[in-house]
Each structure stands twice: as C-alpha cells, then as structure tokens.
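job 3f2a | input accepted
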Amino acid sequence: MASPTSAVSPGPNFRQLLQPAVIVGALGYFVDIYDLILFSLVRVPSLKALGFTGELGTGLGIILQNLQMVGMLVGGIIFGVLGDRLGRVTVLFGSILLYSVANIANGFVHSVEAYAVWRFIAGVGLAGELGGSITLVAEVLPKESRAYGTTIVATVGVFGAVVGGLVADLVSWRTAFFIGGGLGLALLGLRLGVAESGMFQQVKGDAGVARGKFFALFTNWARCKKYLCCILIGLPSWFVIGVLVSLAPEFSRAVGVRGEITTAARAVAFAYLGLTVGDFASGWLSQRLGSRKKVVRGFLLLTLVASAAYLLVRGESVAGFYSLVFLLGLGVGYWAVFVTVGAEQFGTNIRATVATTVPNFVRGALVPISTVFAWGKTWLAARMGAAPADPPPPNATLGSAALVGAVCIGIALWALRGLEETHGKNLDYNEPL
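job 3f2a | predicted structure (433 res):
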C-alpha cells in the first residue's frame, strides 16, 4: 500500500474530471441535498397546514426530522452493503429512485402519521446517493486528482439546498416536494452513461474476497476505532444544520434579532451557500496542501468561532443574522473532505459500506444531538424558574445549544487525531475481514 504524500499536488485536469461518474454524482447529490433538507425548509408551513403550530409544531418537527434521520441510518447500512456486493452504480440509481418516489408521496400527505412514514422512507432512499457517488468517483479518478472530483460532487450537491431554499420561498410546500421528486426521476435517464468502477469489478470477480460485511468493522479494534473516528469528525456539521440553522426562527427570537424570521427556508439557503463555498475551498485546499487533516482541523475551529458568534451576538439585524448563518455554513464546509476521508480509509471490498454509512451515521447523530439539546433547554428553563407549560427562556435555548455544540466540536477534534493522513493514498487494495 502506498503511503500518503505531503507534497503539494498539481492543478486539476478538468477534461479528466468531467466524466459521467463525476457529473451524474454531482447532479444526483444536488437533488439528494435538495430533498434531504426540504423538510427543514417547509417544516413550519407544512405542519401549520396539518394543524400544528407553536411549541407543538416545533416538537413534531423535531420528531419528523429524527424519523428521517433514523431512516438514513437504516438506509446507510442497506445501501452500503449493497454497494460492495452489487456495485456502486446500482446503489447510486436505486437510492435516487426510492427517495424520488417518497418525496412525491410526501406532497400528497394529509396527516402527520403519513408524513412520518414517508419521511422515514425518504430517509432510507437518501442514504445511498452520496456514498455511492463518492466511492465511485474516488475509484475511477487517479489518486492525484480524486479530491478535486469529490469536491465537485460535494460542491454542486450542497448547492441543491440553496436552490431548495429559494424554491420553498416561491411555491407551496407540496409543490416543493413534487419538484424534488421529479428532478430525481429525471436523473434516472442518465444511468446508461455511467460505467462501474474498475476496482469493484476486479474485486467482484475474486470469490475469495469477502465484500460488504458491515459488522466486520467492529470485530477488530483498530478498524473499529478508525471507523468511529471517521463518524465523529462529522458531528459538528449536523449540529449546525440540524439545530442552529433548522431552528433559526427560534434562535433569532432568543438573540433578539431586529426583524421577524418566520421560517428556516432562507436561513437554510444562506447556510448552504456558505457550505458550498466551504466545500469548494476545503477540497481545493486539501489537494493543494497535500493534507486532509490540516484542512478539517482549520474548518472545525472556524465552526467553533461561528457558533459562538451566532449564540452570543445580540440585537443583530436580519441581514446581520443571515451573515452569521452564512459563516456557520462556511465553517462546516469541510463536508467534501470529510466524505473523502471516509472513502480513503478502507479497502475496496468494504469502501462503499464505509463511505455510505459514515455520513449517514453523522446525519443520524442528529437524533441524540437534538434530543440532548431539547432536554438541556428544558432542564435549564426549570433552573431559571420557568413553569413546564411556559415557553423556555431565551438563555435556556442558547445555553443548551452552546453546551451541545462545544461537546460536538471537542469530540470531532479529538477523533481527528486518531485518523491517518490519506492524501495521495493508493486505494487499490482489499481489507482483511
């Protein structure tokens, strides 16, 4: 196995990068992110249309979002294993089909129970696209330029949330779901233009190599630790998106923004605009500097600063508040490097399993993160003398978010130390399972 190199990499060969696997992966992730974040965009108006507002609407919103994330945990394992057993391309388009159908169905719901079922199913489908894309791109591009390829996928992909934020402002919540599902179905027409990974084809033909064994990740301590560290470095990203940005209306009131922010749609758009810039910058820097770890560390520290500013600044204008949201998105823009690191840590016979489950376990971590945040808000409110039926005081909301965010960022910085540098690493090898 070739050891990572610290040399500065040459610039990208754009003709080499713009091949079907990269283009379809980027477009697929664009639709994936649009659909993934769509519930956050339409949470308030959709639940209001179903008869749920105020604290009840906020509570149900967290439950529905958590169900989607649980679906992604389940789907991540299913599609990851299938990616190593059936192929990267099969998983890529299978996931697109499932989440497209589920999101169209979401546009027809008339009860919170149906909403919950289809958000879970959509989560299962959304789980497979990113891992399939990143694994395929990492294996078809040469090691000297694969970070540029995964950066294109991630940068184009996260821009889907920006478009989603704009669409949610212009059309009804039902129409927004129909648009997302329709875009996904349209992508299925590009399937025949994408070739399977040569590395996968080679390992598939070797009957002596075990493939897609998810539980084998936990049978060896060194492998298990490496896998867990891959997950933990991503925790701050979904704390920021799933708590700070998704609950932007609540946080804007807590910090006394001079103006009214009624939905999270525009905040999500600004956060993902920052994330788009950050993804491009982090991917480019990791390739140019020859180090994934230095870039991730720098962006984690930026996230710490941005989160502190978001929770501490008082009496900001609406424009100033959205500027802080943009900075939050920029800070967690190491997502492109994060998913690349996961794909580069393991061998071909289990790479899709890792690359698909790692980002989905991070997304699924929003369940305990948001649960602890909600518990902390209630606990602090009680300590401040608020009655159980009263809305929590602003300082309870802000204090709980600060504590949870600090823990997430601290854990990520600790986990980063346990990972090897993978820039320039040869990926054409199998993991002994």
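job 3f2a | The CA atoms of residues 216 and 326 lie 40 Å apart.
job 3f2a | closed
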